[in-house]
Amino acid sequence: MSKKEEGSRNEFPRPDESSVVCVVEKILGGDHFIAKCSDGKKRLTRIPGRLRRKMWIKERDVVLVAPWDMQSDTKADLLYKYSNNEVRKLVQEKLIPPELLEGA
């Protein structure tokens, strides 16, 4: 494996204009949960079918979500779940406000 491939393996998605970092507040069941987002909003978030059996979510997990086009203030889809090391890197890069993690 080349060094270029190793570097890309360590990469993880960062928030952009179409996604928001959130902390899971409450599990609702049925692959739905309430997430407190870095933009100050709480969104009902669902796990898409392609990720349902691959990704297990618990309260206080840090996740990346994509707000819906039509109801962007209230609903979103899960994109990625960050590991503890990835969360530390996001905080160091100032992509996550520390206040968001205080309740986590």
UniProtKB/TrEMBL annotation:
InterPro entries: NA-bd_OB-fold, RNA-binding_domain_S1_IF1, TIF_eIF-1A, TIF_eIF-1A_CS. The keyword ATP-binding does not apply. Pfam families: eIF-1a. Residues 8-83 form the S1-like domain. Keywords: Initiation factor, Protein biosynthesis. GO terms for molecular function: RNA binding; translation initiation factor activity. Belongs to the eIF-1A family. Seems to be required for maximal rate of protein biosynthesis. Enhances ribosome dissociation into subunits and stabilizes the binding of the initiator Met-tRNA(I) to 40 S ribosomal subunits. PANTHER family: EIF-1A. NCBIfam families: PRK04012.1-1, PRK04012.1-3. This is Translation initiation factor 1A. It comes from Fervidicoccus fontis.
